[in-house]
């Protein structure tokens, strides 16, 4: 009788365990069917999802709502008279003068972001009185050029966008990343000879450019900062039409290119006044 009771208890335990396992399996199966499958994102070759936010915009250099009035200018001269240049040029009489002024207005639509309009005027004048080249008797080559002059005036209009990066927490020093769309027109006159033998040709120039001008800005007063930018090139298109002294077109040249280089001649120093000091708010 005791053995029969133990046998019944064992059978009951086995049936209960099997039933519990079947219930768990059915529950898991139903949960799998009812679960909404979430599509996995495709992994990229580059770890773009692991980029680190360096919070470079936390240092504010320009505040939203500021209106800025600025001016950039450059001036340079070159004079060489009766000197030796590179040991092959003799009797040099050269004078060159260049001046440029570019006022502009900008508005900060966001912290460290601004858009603006710029107008530019450039004047260039140069005179080559004389230059002689003498490579010596062994080369048997020498020549001289005299009485050449050039005069150029040009006007430019541009729309630019500036991105500022504050380099210190006080917002005194900042880096400038500027992109500019520019249209430029002008006239260049070339003179050759002297007296009655003097001849003249006129070039009418048109240029459209996409420039990139990085730089640096430093506040010298709470609402005034000094900027230095340099052109590193970009995409440009030039059209030159040449006319003689009586206005008859004698030639034409179109040129476009994509060029990036450090242009020492395109360094601009400017002063910017911020009309409202948002830093106090």
Descriptive account of the structure:
The chain has 281 residues and is mainly beta. It folds into two domains: 1-34; 56-280, Porin (Beta Barrel). It contains one helix and ten strands. An eight-stranded antiparallel barrel has the order 1-2-3-4-5-6-7-10. The longest helix is centred in the N-terminal third of the chain and has 33 residues, at 2-34. 8% of the residues are buried.
Task: Set down the secondary structure blueprint.
Elements: H1 2-34, E1 67-81, E2 89-110, E3 113-134, E4 142-166, E5 173-192, E6 199-221, E7 224-230, E8 233-243, E9 249-260, E10 267-274
Antiparallel strand pairs: 1-2, 1-10, 2-3, 3-4, 4-5, 5-6, 6-7, 6-8, 7-10, 8-9
């Amino acid at each position: 009788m005791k053995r029969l009771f133990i046998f019944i208890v064992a059978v009951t335990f086995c049936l209960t365990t099997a039933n519990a396992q079947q219930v768990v399996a059915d529950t898991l199966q139903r949960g799998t069917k009812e679960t909404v499958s979430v599509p996995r994102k495709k992994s990229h070759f580059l770890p773009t999802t692991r980029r680190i936010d360096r919070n470079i915009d936390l240092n504010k250099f320009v505040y939203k709502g500021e209106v800025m009035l600025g001016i950039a200018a450059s001036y340079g001269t070159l004079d060489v008279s009766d000197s030796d240049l590179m040991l092959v040029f003799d009797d040099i009489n050269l004078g060159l003068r260049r001046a440029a002024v570019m006022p502009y207005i900008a508005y900060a639509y966001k912290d460290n972001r601004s858009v603006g309009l710029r107008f530019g005027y450039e004047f260039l004048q140069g005179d080559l009185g004389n230059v002689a080249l003498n490579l010596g008797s062994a080369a048997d080559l020498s020549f001289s050029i005299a009485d050449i002059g050039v005069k150029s005036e040009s006007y430019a209009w541009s729309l630019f966008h500036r991105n500022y990066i504050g380099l210190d927490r006080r917002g005194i020093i900042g880096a400038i990343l500027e992109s500019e769309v520019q249209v430029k027109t002008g006239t260049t006159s070339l003179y050759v000879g002297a007296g009655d033998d003097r001849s003249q040709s006129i070039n009418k120039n048109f240029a459209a450019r996409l420039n990139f001008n990085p730089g640096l800005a430093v506040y010298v007063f709470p609402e005034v900062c000094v900027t230095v930018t340099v052109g590193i090139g970009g995409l440009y298109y030039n059209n030159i039409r040449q006319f003689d002294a009586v206005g008859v077109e004698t030639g034409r040249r179109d040129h476009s290119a994509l060029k990036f280089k450090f242009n020492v001649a395109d360094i601009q120093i400017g002063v910017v006044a911020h009309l409202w000091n948002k830093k106090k708010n």
